[in-house]
Amino acid sequence: MADFCTKCAPEMGFDADIDIDAVAANLKPGTYQTCLCEGCVLLAIGKTDGGETILAVPDGNYLQESEEQPVRWVSREEFMTLPSKI
Ligand SMILES: [Zn+2]
User: Fold this and answer.
1) Any alpha helices (H) in the chain, and if so which ranges?
2) CA dihedral defined by 21, 86, 14, 23, rounded to 10 degrees?
3) Distance 49 CA to ligand 1 centre (A)
4) Strand order in the sheet with 53-58
5) For ion ligand 1, residues whose CB falls within 5 Å
6) Closest to 20 measured CA to CA, from 50, 49, 52
7) How far is the CA of 13 from the centre of ligand 1 (A)?
8) Using the 8-state DSSP alphabet, how is residue 27 labeled?
9) Residue 41 in contact with residue 57, Cβ under 8 Å?
10) pLDDT tens, per residue, the chain with 86 residues
C-alpha cells in the first residue's frame, strides 16, 4: 500500500499515512525518522537541536538507479510550498 504525507494525502482525498507533525512530536532533538511519501518523495522527518521540524526531500535531479541521491533538508513551512509531483 502506498503511503502519503500530510501535504499529499489531502490532495488525494484521504487522511495522511505519514503524519508529519505526529512523527516530529515523537522525535528527540537531533534525530530523524525515514519515510517515503509516494506523492512528493518525502524521505525523512527530522528535528534540529533547536527543536525545529525539518524534512528531507530529493534535491533536483533525483536519480532512481543511483545509490548516491542528492538530498535537501527544508523547513516545514518551505516543504508545504513545494510541488507534490502527484
Ligand atoms: Zn508527500
Assistant:
1) 8-12, 20-25, 76-81
2) -20
3) 24
4) 31-34, 44-47, 53-58, 71-75
5) 5, 7-8, 37, 39-40, 42
6) 52
7) 13
8) P
9) yes
10) 689 999 999 998 999 999 999 999 999 999 999 999 999 999 999 999 999 999 999 887 666 677 787 899 999 999 999 887 65
Which grid cell is 60?
A: 533536483
pTM assigned to the model:
0.88
- Copy the grid coordinates of residue 33: 525518522
Type and span of the H or E element at 58? strand 53-58
DSSP, collapsed to helix, strand or coil, labels residue 62 as coil
Ligand 1 center to 28 CA (angstroms): 22
Residue type, 57: V
